[in-house]
Design brief:
The protein is an alpha/beta fold. It folds into two domains: about 120 residues, Rossmann fold, CATH 3.40.50.300; about 290 residues, no CATH class. Helices cover about 35% and strands about 15% of the residues. Strands 7-8-9-10-12-11 form a six-stranded mixed beta sheet, with helices on both faces. A five-stranded parallel beta sheet has the order 2-3-4-1-5. A two-stranded parallel sheet has the order 6-13. A hairpin with a 5-residue loop joins strand 8 and strand 9.
């Protein structure tokens, strides 16, 4: 299969000549191995028993083989991290090591943080612009700079967005026929819960409860529903529910495997805004996983089927569309070193779905609407945010499903999600 270049390739091409060690982190199947292998003279795959045994018997091996060295699933032998860090301290040249991990280290394992020696990059499933479905015409980088031209047209339809949600951004899944794609996603979820958790030192005493909780978490996609509400949804009618500490353990382990990818609350540090919530919005690594866990297919999405944990979500399709938008914006933002969050007041009267912020505190606010038209009520929170932040807010954008990108008379940009790019 031909390699499909990703945005993170540009980041790696810029960073590798100067940085001795880079760690690619993200959920299994996002493409870390394929991307890192493009740049390696030696590949050490620790899921292969003989390679793992060789490395475990001689950690110096990682510094002795021909560079650039790619160490895949390094967390299976955590001492590898410290050996790479030591090599960096000893003066390893730029581009010497690439590491990839689909999980954090097992609980109780202690290693050096690697701060200042090993640079961590997150790799997510493919954003819309990476999937080859069209050519973006609106740039996030230009939106942040405050000089973005807003124009362009797309043939992408509401049905097309639903199909993209279900196809997923996982390179090895999205091009399969629909029936086999569903089987592959089922197998992916089963492997995470039944194989990867135990392989990474996690013992699950109640597997059925974990699966029920994950399904309920999926149903809370794009909401900030509290964990008690999610637990209640996972155990309807049960008098004896798992204690909160058990649920926290589930969440911790699934975060460590990058299965959960919550969007943290945005809290401005230099212009504090009062009464903001600190609760994250819930997202899985890919909205296709959430769709499969909840069990609503293409026709069901288009007909408005699917139960949500929170009444704050208008429809299940709307929640998944927002998750798709968040996934894409995160890929674009992180490629330029910007951060992404969401804003919600404690009273719930103000909410902005996505806020992207650069290191110099320039921001862009996004609302996400599963609709092809935009009304004044759809932009009121963006206009409120502009009043709060003033010139720090470089632009205001509504991401929707319409055919055209344009600016409203009030200056808000209306951009079909398919036309947004890096």
């Amino acid at each position: 299969m031909d390699y499909r270049r990703r945005l993170i390739d540009d980041v790696l091409d810029e960073a590798l000549p100067d940085l001795a060690a880079i760690a690619l982190e993200g959920a299994k199947g996002v493409g870390k191995t394929a991307t890192a292998s493009q740049r390696a003279a030696t590949v050490l795959t620790l899921t292969e028993p003989r390679t793992r045994q060789s490395v475990a018997g001689n950690y110096d091996l990682v510094a002795q083989v021909a560079p650039p060295v790619f160490i895949d699933e390094w967390q299976l032998e955590p001492q590898v991290w410290d050996r790479v860090r030591q090599a960096v301290d000893d003066g390893a040249e730029g581009g010497r090591f690439l590491l990839a991990g689909s999980a954090g280290i097992a609980p109780g394992t202690r290693i050096h943080s690697g701060a200042g020696r090993i640079i961590r990059l997150t790799m997510r499933p493919m954003a819309l612009s990476e999937r080859g479905i069209g050519q973006p015409t609106v740039s996030l980088r230009q939106l942040l700079a405050g000089d973005a031209p807003i124009s362009g047209a797309t043939s992408m339809t509401v049905r097309g967005y639903a199909e993209e949600i279900l196809r997923s951004g996982f390179p090895g899944i999205r091009d399969l026929p629909a029936a086999n794609r569903d089987r592959q996603i089922d197998g992916y979820l089963a492997r995470i819960l039944d194989v990867d958790l135990p392989e990474n030192g996690i013992k699950v005493r109640r597997p059925a409860m974990l699966r029920a909780w994950l399904k309920a978490y999926a149903a809370a996609t794009a909401t900030s529903a509290d964990y008690t509400k999610i637990l209640d949804a996972a155990t309807p009618g049960e008098a004896e529910k798992p204690v909160r500490t058990t649920v926290d353990v589930y969440r911790e382990h699934l975060l460590r495997l990058f299965m959960l990818d919550p969007l943290e609350a945005w809290i401005p540090s230099f212009a504090p805004m009062k009464r903001l919530t600190f609760s994250p919005k819930h997202h899985l690594a890919d909205p296709a996983l959430a769709a499969r866990l909840v069990g609503v297919g293409l026709d069901g999405l288009l007909l408005g089927e699917g139960d949500c944990v929170s009444v704050a979500t208008s429809t299940w399709f709307g929640a998944l569309f927002e998750s798709l938008a968040v996934q894409s914006v995160r890929v674009y933002a992180e490629a330029m070193g910007a951060s992404v969050g969401h804003l919600r007041t404690k009273s719930g009267d103000r909410e902005v779905d996505i806020i992207v912020e650069t290191n110099d505190r320039r921001c862009v606010g996004f609302e996400v609407k599963l609709a092809d038209t935009v009304s004044d009520s759809d932009v009121k929170h963006l206009n409120w945010l502009s009043e709060q932040l003033g010139p720090r807010l470089s632009d205001r954008v509504v991401l929707n499903t319409g055919p055209y990108a344009y600016r409203r008379a009030d200056g808000v940009a209306v951009v079909p999600l398919a036309l947004l790019g890096p």
